[in-house]
Automatic annotation (TrEMBL):
InterPro entries, sorted: NUDIX_hydrolase-like_dom_sf (IPR015797), NUDIX_hydrolase_CS (IPR020084), NUDIX_hydrolase_dom (IPR000086), Peptidase_M49 (IPR039461)
Entry keyword Metal-binding: yes
Source species of the chain: Opuntia streptacantha
Name of the protein in its database record: Nudix hydrolase domain-containing protein
SUPFAM superfamilies cross-referenced by the UniProt entry: Nudix
Length: 778
């Protein structure tokens, strides 16, 4: 009887920069021809003993037989993903089965070498993963794959590094002075900081936020509305839980762990406090650099990860997160790239594509559901399609959360005395379960209630991969009727602004709906409200509604007042020329914020591309959209202020103060970091206006506005951005951001001065009134 023919493993052939070519070849041919391909390295690290697990490669291996090597490694088969491969290889080779939150992607490195007398050419991109266990796994718990592994052992990091440095022939060689040195550095750095050093660092980061208390006068609310408010606040707490899950797969476990250990020490308290501001391990004000590592994360017990061992309770591991913030957050598989998404999307029907690229779905892998998924097989040198992805509606993905939130809002709707609030709560409750938010967004726009509620999935800043997916958020406030009445001017003149925008008339919309503006005193917020606090928002983002009905704006007046007092005035005192400091005032700051939000509702949204195809600005600009849209709203908002003044609709007293207040605001927003859409957009504007000499830096490091040049500079940038949006020109958007979205020397001078003076970067609100209501104290 003939021996069974072994299954041929196919690999994706990559370019020298690691991109898929669309070609796949048998593994043997790849190494014969020296084709670039991808593999995974998985390391198991014991935290308590500072040891690494090594495996001894089987003698039958075609590369480095009989030598000690990485805990587990393997090629990524054609059509397969990195993380699924890492999980599968660890299971197949060592008998260790772990969920995806145990795997931390450290880095990717390229290994280029030739062995076996030139017959084995290895040009391999390696995705390096770390699994951190609390203590060593008993050796008898492993189930070794004999064709791959002959033995395993633990070895201290320092000893292993020393053996590699000496090129010990018993160990597979790695250049610890090259890229692979990152591995040992990453482990060493996360455990070397002492408690005092870390505490001081976290305290400095935390001190950049000025703590304030926010509340609102509830005396005009009736008893039934107060009862409804309590239920709405409870729904907002649920919304917060959803957002934590949207950020990263292990983020909820990290949150619960830090909260549960906050009383253990001052350091633990600081970790929890600063996490509470950022709602993730990545610092919003530091371009999302991590302030925590997996070493700080939750300990999870997986009793069935390996073979059982008498007297051993099972494998305990640290819930992992990468040091680099994942651009796709938890909306997409962590190892998915844009090409894979586009290949899959192009095989969908038009309706399916709309869901896949829409606001309210997450993207997942079929192969994540099984460790035994195999790569694509087929004929030699063919294109490899990708069908591993699928979408899940939010209503299904977050079903347990949304069902509870829906019930709370439905009950609240039965209590409130306001007809428009009743309709909003009812339609939102329905939307949470149906995943169709159109009617609830219309109801939100038509809200006319003392109690002002915004709750649901809206902004897409967290999706840095495409800018498609919306995060959940909640803003609960009490309407300021007097301030709201004063702002009717802005919403009523949007069509006039649209008709006069500095761009080609062919791009202008003939119909722009008036934008209702509501001013509120913020009582509570939740969900995607991390880091720097918003002072206003303009919703909805659904292009269908924007086209047909326009948008509505909500201004958070007490937040604006707090920022002006604690942030903008100290900035002006430090960075604005003494002659112009008195021109920085709250009216200019607040009025520009209004115009900023108005200008989200005008300009290009639904567009016609040069080839005649209909699209939207968001779809065409993808990950570049958010920063450019924020820059557009800012700079066109400044243009709009001047337009209103020139038409006699706003007082002449704003004609200079609006520009100087805007200049001070540039320094405020850039401090949010250039990884954040508002900060990036503000850097673009400042650098453009500085280049046009509209902003001037003096010998003492202070800045002023050249009133003779600023109007033309503002108009030229407005025209540039509006034209890019109207044509859906992603290449032009990229060029503009590459040139101007940087920390230029003048910005660095200003930011260093503010840092030295310890001017707060933003506010950290607490909501004592809302907390009392939630806990039944009122």
């Amino acid at each position: 009887m003939a021996a069974p023919v072994p299954e041929v493993e196919y690999l994706d052939v990559l370019t020298k920069t690691g991109q898929k070519t669309g070609v796949r070849k048998p593994r043997g041919d790849v190494h014969r021809d020296g084709d670039y391909h991808r593999a995974v390295n998985v390391w198991i690290y014991s935290e308590s003993t500072h040891e690494l697990l090594l495996q001894k490669r089987a003698d039958c291996k075609d590369s480095w037989p009989g030598q000690w090597d990485i805990s587990s490694a393997g090629h990524i088969s054609a059509g397969e993903s990195s993380l699924v491969t890492a999980r599968r290889e660890l299971h197949e080779e060592l008998g260790v089965e772990l969920p995806k939150d145990a795997f931390e992607l450290l880095f990717v490195f390229l290994r280029e070498c030739v062995i076996n007398d030139g017959t084995f050419i290895n040009n391999e991109f390696n995705d390096v993963y770390l699994v951190t266990t609390v203590s060593p796994i008993p050796l008898e718990a492993f189930a070794l794959q004999e064709t791959e592994v002959s033995a395993v052992k633990y070895i201290s990091c320092e000893e292993y590094k020393s053996l590699l440095a000496k090129a010990d022939p018993g160990y597979v060689p790695y250049d610890i002075n090259g890229e692979y040195g990152q591995f040992f550095d990453a482990i060493a750095q996360r455990y070397k900081k002492n408690v005092e050093e870390r505490s001081l660092s976290l305290q400095r980061q935390f001190n950049r936020y000025a703590p304030i208390q926010l509340g609102a006068d509830l005396t005009e609310l009736g008893d039934s509305d107060l009862e409804a408010l309590k239920l709405i606040l409870k729904a907002a707490v649920i919304i917060d839980a959803i957002f934590h899950e949207q950020v990263w797969v292990s983020n909820p476990a990290l949150r619960d762990w830090l909260k549960g250990h906050a009383d253990k020490s001052d350091l633990h308290r600081l970790k929890w406090n600063y996490y509470g501001i950022n709602k993730s391990p990545w610092s919003c004000l530091d371009d999302h650099e991590p302030f925590l590592t997996t070493a700080d994360s939750a300990i999870k017990l997986h009793p069935n990860a390996t073979k059982p061992v008498p007297g051993w309770k099972g494998l305990e591991y640290k819930a992992a997160f990468p040091s680099v913030r994942p651009p796709g957050a938890n909306f997409y598989p962590a190892d998915m790239d844009k090409m894979e998404f586009e290949l899959w999307k192009n095989n969908l029907t038009e309706g399916e594509r709309q869901v896949a690229t829409g606001f309210f779905s997450v993207i997942k892998r079929h192969s994540e559901n099984s460790l035994h998924a195999t790569g694509n097989s087929g004929s030699n040198y063919t294109l490899a399609p990708s069908y591993d992805l699928y979408y899940v509606p939010y209503s299904q993905e977050y079903s347990s959360y949304l069902t509870e939130a829906s019930e709370l809002l439905q009950t609240a709707s039965e209590l409130t005395s306001s007809p428009s609030l009743k309709r909003l709560l009812q339609t939102k409750a329905t939307a949470f379960l149906s995943n169709d938010y159109y009617d609830s967004d219309i109801a939100w726009m038509e809200l006319d209630s003392k109690l002002d509620i915004t709750i649901g999935p809206y902004e897409t800043y967290e999706d840095m991969l495409f800018g498609y997916k919306a995060t959940f958020e909640a803003f609960i406030g009490v309407r300021d009727d007097d301030a709201t009445a004063k702002l009717k001017l802005f919403g009523d003149h949007l069509l006039v602004l649209e008709q006069n925008l500095p761009m080609n008339d062919a791009f202008k919309s003939k119909e722009v709906a008036a934008a209702p503006i509501r001013v509120i005193q913020l009582l509570y917020n939740a969900g995607d409200v991390k880091g720097p606090q918003t002072v206003a928002f303009n919703l909805p983002n659904d292009d269908r509604i924007v086209k047909d009905r326009g948008t509505s704006m909500v201004m958070l007046k007490n937040v604006s007042e707090a920022k002006f007092k604690h942030i903008l005035l100290p900035i002006a005192k430090a960075c604005i020329s003494r002659e112009q400091q008195q021109l920085v005032d709250f009216d200019s700051f607040f009025t520009h914020t209004i115009c900023h939000e108005c200008c989200h509702g005008i300009g290009p949204h639904s567009i016609v591309l040069p080839n005649g195809e209909k699209s939207t600005v968001r779809l065409e600009l993808q990950e570049l959209y958010s920063a450019l849209e924020e820059a557009k709203a800012d700079i066109v908002g400044l243009w709009a202020l001047n337009f209103f003044v020139s038409q006699g609709l706003l007082p002449q007293s704003l004609s200079k103060s609006m520009y100087v207040s805007f200049l001070a605001g540039c320094f405020r927003s850039v401090r949010f970091g250039l990884e954040e859409a508002h900060g990036k957009g503000q850097a673009l504007q400042f650098n453009w206006l500085f280049e046009k000499e509209a902003f001037v830096m003096h010998s003492d490091g202070r800045f002023s506005v050249d009133f003779d040049k600023v109007k033309d500079a503002v108009e030229s940038l407005s025209r540039e951005i509006l034209t890019i949006q109207a044509t859906g020109n992603k290449s032009a958007a990229s060029s503009l951001q590459e040139k101007y979205c940087e920390l230029s020397d003048p910005l660095v001078i200003a930011l260093d001065k503010l840092e030295g003076l310890k001017v707060p970067v933003d506010i950290a609100p607490s909501f004592t009134v809302a907390e009392k209501i939630l806990h039944g104290q009122s």
